[in-house]
Amino acid sequence: MPDVSPGHPATVRECLALGRPTLSFEFMPPKTPEAQQRFWQTIEVLTSLRPSFVSVTYGAGGSTRDNTTGIVRRLVAETALLPVAHLTAVDHSVTEIAEVVDRFAEAGVRNILALRGDPPGDVTGIWAKHPQGVEYASELVELLSARGRFCVGVAAFPYKHPRSASIETDTEWFVAKCRAGADYAITQMFFDADDYLRLRDRVVGAGCEAPIIAGIMPVTSMGTIERSQQLSGAPFPEHLLARFEAVSRDREAVRALGIEQAIDLAQRLLREGVPGIHLITMNSAKAIREVLTGVPALGRPGTPKP
After folding, report:
1. b vs e for 259-275, b when ≥16 Cβ sit within 10 Å of the residue's Cβ?
2. Average per-residue pLDDT in the chain?
3. CB 19 within 8 A of CB 26
4. Can you tell me the distance from the alpha carbon of 193 to that of 51, in angstroms, rounded to the nearest whole number?
5. Alpha carbon separation from 161 to 158, 164, 281 (Å, rounded)
6. pLDDT range class, residue 58, cuts 50, 70, 90
7. Residue at 305 is within a domain
8. Using alpha carbons only, what angle is made at residue 242 by residues 238 and 247, rounded to the nearest 5 degrees?
9. How far apart are CA 144 and CA 95, in angstroms?
10. Lowest mean pLDDT, pick from 2-6, 227-231, 273-277, 282-286
């Protein structure tokens, strides 16, 4: 079991309360035996960096539900990592959600990221709630908060959610999730610090002071840019796209620029007082270690240099 002795944070809320920027990593459940092996190798490498917590995603429609549960169970039982389990409402009744939540609780998970979720295969597709499910992420937060056993996180969208009618309504929905009981938020991936800062200003202006952790995914190929738009539903910043397109025929140059951009983004955010940096790993350690080499402020005490 992980160390949950006095002084060792057992929730993301406690990590944030320590007063220093959190460092966290996001992983996806692997789908093949070969991917499983690479996944646990990556976990071992990145554990040495002593992240504040790690999160494990939950496939559209619960497509990786059992795999997610198994992974977080093993993380609790066999590592010193603090796992956050993603949970979506897609294609789940309230009863099914309760069953999944109970399984997480039985595994010793105390941290859940509550997401309404996207239609399978298309983040911009038409959303349809389960007949006995929930319509909004705020309802999912209420269900989790009512159980009283979890630290609950939610998503934030620097650009805005692709199904939000406007920036203003997107801010309203975010504040509603926080008032329903969310302890903190992690943003969808973004690539321009100003997008994050505008989000933070909007939220504070709406009277909400929930900590918003910044989600960053290093660009390691031109394909990463396309994938980022598919996953987030947000356009890639034009001024950055021009820089990547200028070197697009040189794979190494694209990768070097992506690492440089992620370092610059993290450093700017830290100067602006972001409460934490959440690195989306795509289950690979190399780029993450390179980024952290350039962001010494995120080094953990007693941690070997990446």
Report:
1. bbbbbebbbbbbeeebb
2. 88
3. no
4. 22
5. 8, 5, 22
6. confident
7. no
8. 150
9. 13
10. 2-6
Q: Which of 67, 106, 68 is nearest to 87 (CA)?
A: 68
Is 306 within the bounds of a domain? no
Q: What is the CATH number of the domain that holds 218?
A: 3.20.20.220
Residue 298 lies in a domain: no
CA distances from 109 to 66, 69, 130, 234 (A): 14, 9, 25, 31
Domain that holds residue 47: 12-292
Q: What pLDDT is recorded for position 299?
A: 75
Residue 201 lies in a domain: yes
Catalytic residues, which ones? 26
Q: How many distinct structural domains can be found in the chain?
A: 1
pLDDT digits (tens, 9 = 90+) for 107-128: 899 999 999 776 665 555 666 6
The label of the residue with tokens 């690979």 reads: 284
pLDDT tens-digit readout, 143-196: 898 877 899 999 999 987 777 778 899 999 999 999 999 999 999 999 999 999
Tokens 């080499």 found at: 293
